[in-house]
Amino acid sequence: MKTMMDFLKRQPLLTGAIGVAFVALSIRFLGPRMVGDFEGGVFRLAFAMAAAVFLYLISGEKTFEKCGGTTGYVLITLLPLMIYPIIGGVLGVISNIQEGVPAAADWPVRLLILAFSYLAVGLVEELTARGLINDALLYQFRNVKHIFLIIAIADIVVFGAVHLIGTDISDPMGVVQAILKTLSSGLGGLCWLFMYWKTRNLWAVAVSHGLFDFVTSLPEIFFKIEKSSENTYVQQGTLGFALMAVLGIDLVINLIVVIWLWKRHMKDVDFEEIRKTW
Q1: φ and ψ at residue 103, rounded to 5 degrees
Q2: DSSP readout, 57-89?
Q3: Chain mean position to CA 27
Q4: Distance between terminal CA atoms of the chain?
Q5: Could you tell me the residue ranges of all domains in the chain?
Q6: Helices (H), 99-235
Q7: What is the pLDDT of residues 134-146, one digit of tens each?
Q8: What is residue 100's DSSP assignment?
Q9: 201: part of which helix (H) or strand (E)?
Q10: Distance CA 262, CA 275 (A)
């Protein structure tokens, strides 16, 4: 066992790839077995712990030493990223009221369960998409000139595309929706990556990520909504065009936030210092 651990420590790219694949495939194939939001939160918390182990093999304690002190700053700075989920959550609540969907009497319990569930989502996805991908590439190719650009591109592609695992993309409309979903999710992930570079506070970006998903789910808290087992990332007909419009809006918002973050908050980030000391 020690021999294998030592080997993984010497091969950060391989360790990161195994960690990302393990988490992604576990969620893909075990996801359907998660019988509820609480159970799903427990599963994802376990996957987050697994991702943390792989991350520890790559960068040791360094990544976890700064998970504090800057949490408030990160959450406040990333507030513009909440525009889309707030609009979507509020419109969802209004839509359910207009359609006469029954209110959930147990909404306080649902609120607590979903808060836990989405915090777990934020933890597992940030430990994996930001922690593992960034640290694996940085530790493996520390001296490559454009390593941070490579990390950013890899993060956009992997984090965006992983949302489409298991999606049936078999027609032009589905392809367009998949591209829009990949880019919109990837750019949102890039905002969290920026804050990871600036603070190395994975806890903060995980909370921000969980809050993003939690606000989007507001209708699930207050109304008795039956969750569909169908994949909502690809739709056809009128719903397909509506989904493309929504994804396009999300893409534009995230692109604006990325540019704003880079110009306003990333000027004092010493990438050479990161290259040498991370």
Answers
A1: -75, 150
A2: HHHTTHHHHTSSSSHHHHHHHTGGGGHHHHHHH
A3: 13
A4: 26
A5: 2-277
A6: 107-125, 133-140, 147-162, 172-199, 202-216, 218-222
A7: 999 999 999 999 9
A8: T
A9: none
A10: 18
User: Could you give the CA distance from residue 184 to residue 18 in angstroms, rounded to a whole number?
Assistant: 25
How would residue 32 be classed by pLDDT, with cut points 50, 70 and 90?
low
Residue-wise pLDDT for 160-184, tens only, equals 887 776 666 777 877 888 888 889 9
Contacts of 51 (CB under 8 A, 6+ apart): 19, 23, 124, 127, 128, 131, 132
* Maximum C-alpha span of the chain: 62
- CA separation, residue 39 to residues 4, 11, 43, 166 (Å): 32, 34, 6, 21
Q: What is the mean pLDDT of residues 51-57?
A: 96
Contact 269, 141 (CB under 8 A): no
